[in-house]
Amino acid sequence: MTEGLLSLQKMQVVSWVVLVVITAFSAMFMSLAFAWSVMVGGMISIASFFISNKDILKLIDSVTSLSSPEDRKATAQQGQKGYLLKFWLRIVIIGVVLFVLIKWKLVNIFGLILGLSTVVISIMFISMNVAGRYLFRGRR
Predict the structure, then answer these.
(1) Taking Cα atoms as reference points, which of 137, 131, 134, 107 lies closest to residue 26?
(2) Residue 97: CA count within 13 A, CB half-sphere
(3) From the CA atom positions of the chain, what is the Rg in Å?
(4) How far is Cα 107 from Cα 109, in angstroms, rounded to an integer?
């Protein structure tokens, strides 16, 4: 479990680094308004990932802390319902925030989409890093 937590922490750090780099390049090569949009989208993406990560870890900890298989199953089923409710609530909140940002023209839509892709870009970098280590330097 500790290795998984380190990977998730690494993922969050990489996501913030990717967001800072993309925002800086956007400010230098596009415009400050575009960079603002990238930053807003990235913060929404990273916050959603962070909250989801926290909810999943809480669910896993609550289930694995029980010794009885019946208790584990009941807790897992109840926790799954709670997690799904929180998931859909988070999606609705993000949808409302994005609607307001786009409707009121507070952001550049392309910059927002680029920012929302921050976590996906981070996953891509981490995956390429792991694959590279596995293929070229031997398995670790």
Answers:
(1) 107
(2) 16
(3) 19
(4) 6
pTM of the model: 0.85
Residue 63 contacts residue 79 (beta carbons within 8 Å): yes
pLDDT band at 115 (very low <50, low <70, confident <90, very high): very high
38-74: per-residue pLDDT in tens? 999 999 999 999 999 888 888 888 777 777 788 777 8
Percentage of residues in the chain having pLDDT higher than 90: 59
Dihedral through CA 14, CA 18, CA 24, CA 28, nearest 10?
A: 150
Query: d(Cα 117, Cα 37) in Å, to the nearest integer?
Result: 12
The DSSP code sequence of 51-100 is HHHHHHHHHHHHHHT--SHHHHHHHHHHHHHHHHHHHHHHHHHHHHHHHH
Q: Which two tokens stand for residue 106?
A: 């507070």
How far is 86 from 78, CA to CA, in rounded Å? Answer: 13
In the numeric block, which tokens belong to residue 42? 């990235």
Residue 65 burial (CB < 10 Å; 0-12/13-18/19+)? exposed
Q: What would the two tokens of residue 24 be?
A: 């800086």
